[in-house]
Amino acid sequence: MSTADKRRVAPDGRSMPAAGGYAWAVFALTFGLMLSDYLSRQVIGAVFPFLKSDWGVSDAQLGALVSIVSVVVGVLTLPLSLIADRWGRVKSITLMAFVWCLATIACGLAANYTQLLVARAMVGVGEAAYAAAGAALLAHVFPVGKRAAIQGAFQSAGLFGSVLGVVIGGAVASQYGWRTAFFVVGAPGLLLALLYPFVVRDYVAPKLAGSPEGSTRLPLAQLVRQVFVARSGNLTFVAFGLQMAIPSILIAWMPTFLNRCYDFEPRKAALMAAVAVLAAGIGVLFGGGLSDRLSRGRPGLRAVVPAAYAGICGVLLAVGFGLPPGGLALGLIFAGAAFAVAHGGCAVAIVMDVTHPAVRATVTATAVLGASLLGLAPGPFLVGVVSDWSDLKTALTVAPLMSLVAAVLFLLASRSYERDAARFGQLTGADTAAVPSRARLKPATH
After folding, report:
1. What are phi and psi of 341, to 5 degrees?
2. Which of 63, 137, 246, 356 is 20 to 30 Å from the Cα of 416, by its Cα?
3. Are residues 394 and 386 in contact, defined by beta-carbon separation less than 8 angstroms?
4. pLDDT category, 138, cuts 50, 70, 90?
5. Cα 445 to Cα 426: distance, rounded to the nearest angstrom
6. Contact 44, 252 (CB under 8 A)
7. How confident is the model at residue 139 (pLDDT cuts 50, 70, 90)?
8. Which residues, in sequence order, are CB contacts of 359 under 8 Å at separation 6+?
9. 424 beta partners
10. Calpha distance 99→421 (Å, rounded)
11. CA separation (Å) from 70 to 61, 201, 328, 357, 421?
C-alpha cells in the first residue's frame, strides 16, 4: 500500500486527494455495483411476456413488480442512508449488495406471483441507500477538481445498467427461460460484493464545528421549513416527480408494447426498447448543459427549459403511441424518449438554487423521494391498470399527459424562480450584480 493511499484524511477530518490507483479501483467497484443495482431493478420488464404466458397475470400485476421496487426505495432511502452514515458506508454497501443480488436470484426461484412480488420488494430494500452511500465514498477518494465528473460518471451507470437489464434479460429469457434471466443478472454482483470490503476502506466524517458532540442534525421543524421554503422549489419537486414516471414507464413497458403491437419477438423487443432508453440517456447528458447556456444572463429561463423538455416529450410520445404501428410512430416514440429525462439536471439545479446551502443534501434526497413516490413507483402500475381496463396501446397513449402536467408546473415555477433564488444569492454571473446585497446570504460553513 502506498503512502499516499494511507493519507486520505487530514488530522481535522477533511478529505485529501486520493492516489490514482486506489481511487480508480474504488470507482470501478462502486460503478460495477451501480450497474448491478440497475440490472437487477430493470430486468423485470424484459420478462413480462413470459410471466404473462406462464402465470396469466394481469398487466396491473406486472406493473406492480416494477413499482414495488421504487416504493420501497422511496420509503427507505432517507432512514437507510442515515444508518449507513453511522454504521459505516463500506459495511453498508457490502450488505446492501448481497441483499439485492440474493433477492434477484430469489426472483428466479419464485413459485408464484406473491413470492415474486416479495422478492422484488427485497431488491428495493437492498438498493434503497446504495446511490447515497456510493456517492459519499467517491466524493471522499477523489479530489474536489474531479468530483463533478466522477459523480456524473457514477450516475450514468444507472442508465447503462437499465439498458443491459432489458437487453440481457430479453436475450437470456428467450433462450433459456425467464428464471435463468434473474440468475444471470443477480450472480455477478455477489462477486463484487465479496471484493468490496477487501479493497475499499471507509472514512470518518468530519464533525460539524460548534455542534453538540459533533452532531450535524437540525431540528426537524427547521429542516422542513428550509426544504420547502420556496414556491418555485415546491412546484419543481412535484413537476420533477411526475415527469420521472415517463422513463420508468418506458423501461417497464416498451418491450411488452413492441411485442404486442409490433409483433416483435421478445429478444428483438428488448433490443429496440434499449434504443429508447439510450435515447433518454443522450437527452439527460445534454439537457442540463443546454439549460445552463440558455439561462445564463436570463435566469427566468431556468425553469422554462425543463417545461419545454416535458412538453415536447409529452406531445411526441402521445402521438407516437397513438399512431398505428410503423416506422413513423416508432421514430416519434424514440424522439420523445430523448426528452423523457432531459429535465433531470435542470430540476435538481432549481431546487438547489432556491434553498439554503446548508440543506442541499436533504433537498436532493427530498427530490429523489418525490420522484419515487410520484412517478417511478405509480407510473408503471397505473399503465398496467389502464391496460387491463382497455389495452396497452391506449394506456401508453394516455400516460404522457403526466408530462404535460409537469410542463405546466415548471412554467408556474418559473414565475417565482428569480425571486426565490435571489434570496440565497444563487443567480450567477451578471444576474447577481442586480440583486441587492442584503438578499445574498453568506453560504453556510461546514
Report:
1. -120, 10
2. 246
3. yes
4. confident
5. 16
6. yes
7. low
8. 218, 223, 226, 227
9. 440
10. 41
11. 15, 29, 32, 28, 31
pTM of the model: 0.70
- Half-sphere exposure at residue 271, Cβ-oriented, CA atoms within 13 angstroms: 7
Q: How far apart are CA 374 and CA 364, in angstroms?
A: 15
Residue 395 has pLDDT above 70, yes or no: yes
Q: Which three cell numbers stand for residue 238?
A: 412535484
Q: How confident is the model at residue 205 (pLDDT cuts 50, 70, 90)?
A: low
For 288, phi then psi, to 5°, come to: -65, -40
Count the residues in the chain. Answer: 446
Tens-place pLDDT, residues 315-329? 999 999 999 999 999
Count of alpha carbons within 13 angstroms of residue 184, beta-carbon side: 19
Residue with cell 402521445: 318
Question: Which segment of 1-10, 290-299, 358-367, 394-403 scores lowest on mean pLDDT?
Answer: 1-10
Q: What distance in Å separates the CA atoms of residue 149 and residue 334, rounded to the nearest whole number?
A: 27
Distance CA 268, CA 280 (A): 19
Residue 15: per-residue pLDDT: 43
- Chain-centroid distance of CA 359 in Å reads 20
CA distance 363 to 361: 5
Angle formed at CA 271 by CA 265 and CA 273, multiple of 5 degrees: 95
For the chain, give the longest Cα–Cα distance.
67
Q: Determine the residue type at 412.
A: L
